[in-house]
Amino acid sequence: MPHPHLTLDRRSFLRGVGAATASLALPGALSDLAAETSTGVPRRKFGKTKETVSIIGVGGHTLATAKDEAESIRIVHEAIDQGINFMDNAWEYHDGRSEEVMGKALAGGWRDKTFLMTKVCTHGKGKDLAMKMLEESLKRLQTDHLDLWMIHQLDTQEQVTAAFAPGGAVEALDAARKQGKIRYVGFTGHADPDVHLAMLAHDYAWDAVLMPINSFEANRTGFRTRVLPEVAKRGVAGLGIKSLGGNGKVVKDGKFTAEQCIRFALTQPLTVQIVGMNSVEQLRANLQIARNFKPMTAAELEQLTARAATLDDPARYCCYRQPGYADGHTLLG
Q1: For the stretch 181-220, what's the b/e string if a residue is b when 16 or more beta carbons lie within 10 angstroms of its beta carbon?
Q2: Residue 320 annotated to the active site
Q3: Domain ranges of the chain
Q4: What confidence tens digit (pLDDT) does each residue in 187-228 have?
Q5: How many CB atoms within 10 Å of residue 180?
Q6: Global pTM value
Q7: Superfamily for 4-321?
Q8: I need a labelling partner for 330 at 20 to 30 A (CA). Which of 226, 282, 314, 322 fits?
């Protein structure tokens, strides 16, 4: 039985594609695009700050699925040497092993060359648990501070309420920043654009918001068309994930290339697209995509979304829309 998020009359879906892509102006964020001169990897301004970050980032979950720890460390070192400075992670990825592996890679002076983000995984619980997780993340990552700390995977309105309640996770963000253990704050989610909009409606001083961005969601009125424009309007850094749908099957099945998927995402008003890679070969392929990046034209955007609309099994290509999905259970995207 198809998941309710994915049940959509195909004819209506195709009609909506044109309207959705037509509403996508080429992003103003692209005017901030500048190459990191020694490597050719473009960077974008991080929200309202003076920071700049590479347009693609290293996904922490997939990093830990490399053939061995040495390969994971090699990916991080080569990524940094070649111009990628954004590192993603989360407290719960592989029961903490993702942070541990990244921490080993960043030891010995590599940390100072990165913009390091991890996520706190309280899932509705409050400040005390969040602060405990922060200390564990800092220890695993072998650092005394994070550049960005995000409340992870907000899926329900109840979690929004809990985050802002007295003793909630938002108080942990404030406390950690006051202690100098984090620099910037944000939140993430995969399930419901209305949850993101509810978080933004609180008018808290968010620095970054993370969401799935791709061309083949069944619901064209989702994160890309409703949430991302609001994030851009507020001057908040937009972080993209799942450009390949979260499992890479759209590429494995020969429907699209990784370059098409990532280029589509990078054409949106994003700051960085986080990409999963578990081999040096994948890293080098993604470096080429970043170095050769040119925004898609409106016609190219419409063509790709129209093709995506004809996929026989959208659920196959958007794993995060499937019932019971929990972030970090897939390898690519």
Answers
A1: bbbbbbbbbbbbbbbbebbbeeeeebbbbbbbbbbbbbbb
A2: no
A3: 4-321
A4: 999 889 999 999 999 999 999 999 999 887 655 568 999 999
A5: 9
A6: 0.89
A7: NADP-dependent oxidoreductase domain (3.20.20.100)
A8: 226
